[in-house]
């Protein structure tokens, strides 16, 4: 499904307004939420502090399933920021889409290929960097390419590409498909602006159900992405 897009050129590169606006809105929401939760911490934790601590403990638990306890604590803030950004980005287009003419300027950033692939590169770069730091460059290459046997070299090389593709494509595919279905259901209603007979009567509850399901999928995909990031950090740092 190809939608019209609004782009501009800068330094010979093409930039998409939808990707930029959607990503900036998601980032702003994340920053505001984090700032509100962490505002004026006190010795006696308030509800906001408790919510923040519960979220951090949840991320520590997710990472703790694949990482040693000290590493899970070390990467809990990174995992929390990644989870929060993914959660907001996944849900944004389910809750709100802004369209002018034929161009949608605001939707889920993760429903556009660039963002999931960029996040996958970032997460794997962190994992590979930790591998080098933990094992040294020689040990990192040995663990990356020749574990458990030298004969596994071709499979290990392919695995690195498949890790990247599955991490990015799983996120993109689920969020993109969710938005496509919502738009198709909304179109069958004659949305927006007028009643479309029996199709509207049928589509309204279906739209509500699918929207709720998509919200759940968005949360699950954020969880899975952070969990797999922890798994890759564990694998590449020799902590399997």
From TrEMBL:
How does this chain sit within the bilayer?
A: Multi-pass membrane protein
Principal place of residence = membrane
Q: A Pfam family matched by this chain, by name? A: ATP-synt_A
- Give the residue spans that cross the bilayer: 20-39, 75-95, 115-141, 161-185, 191-210
Query: Where, per UniProt, does this protein localize?
Result: Cell membrane; Membrane
Instruction: Cite the Gene3D superfamilies for this sequence.
Output: ATP synthase, F0 complex, subunit A
Arranged from A to Z, the UniProt key words for this protein are: ATP synthesis, Cell membrane, CF(0), Hydrogen ion transport, Ion transport, Membrane, Transmembrane, Transmembrane helix, Transport
Family membership: Belongs to the ATPase A chain family.
**Role summary:** Key component of the proton channel; it plays a direct role in the translocation of protons across the membrane.
Q: What is this protein called?
A: ATP synthase subunit a
Organism of this sequence = Eupransor demetentiae
Gene, per the UniProt record: atpB
